[in-house]
């Protein structure tokens, strides 16, 4: 007569935190873990850049100075270019972008997508607040040019214009991507608009001599990290209440937004 010992099983609640977070059968934990990791990985180069700026690393300073000097010489010889850059930098400044975000919030609220509207507000507010705090902590001075074509007040790192343009571009993409489903041309146009918003805004700040190139790069990195983090939190809530979730960069954060009765 043979006997076997009692079988033991490990309940999901008894598994390690690491195993639960990486379990493909527990999609909520896996998605949140991957999104959090992505946000962290974006913050790593931002943190490294901040350390190099605070430490006044000579190669970074020399590169910033070379880019600024080159663009300033071009601007000094091309007044029309300066006027175009000034118009763009005013239109894409934090104030107008926040007003545009508020318009989107009101539209979403009236459409019944109130949690999505709150996500937009949270993304813009958290990102803007982080940028303001980091400017004070780093305390980097703006470029000092002998014959400046533009002036700006306050500290330089990270660029508030680049940060808010990235936040606005992220909101633009993740809110309106559902409306491009099955429309490749519209999807390309939306992505192009988002990239141009960020790219030209960054260029304008350096071209006008009011920011170093590393300032605008830092603003973009911080903006991407904030959008990734808030989008991850929003998608986590959606999964908990049983709402559909697709790929954020393809379907946006609310794929059902195209159905006003959803």
TrEMBL record:
InterPro entries in the record: PAP2/HPO, PAP2/HPO_sf
Positions of transmembrane segments: 28-57, 87-109, 116-138, 158-177, 189-210, 216-234
Transmembrane helix in keyword set? yes
Q: Which domain of life is it from?
A: Bacteria
Write out the entry's keywords from A to Z. Membrane, Transmembrane, Transmembrane helix
- This protein's record includes keyword Lipoprotein: no
State the Gene3D superfamilies in the record.
Answer: Phosphatidic acid phosphatase type 2/haloperoxidase (1.20.144.10)
Report the residue ranges that make up the Phosphatidic acid phosphatase type 2/haloperoxidase domain in this protein.
Answer: 117-231
PANTHER family found in the cross-reference section:
AT30094P, SPHINGOSINE-1-PHOSPHATE PHOSPHOHYDROLASE
Report what the protein is called.
PA-phosphatase
Species assigned in the record:
Micromonospora wenchangensis
Q: What is the lineage of its organism?
A: Bacteria, Bacillati, Actinomycetota, Actinomycetes, Micromonosporales
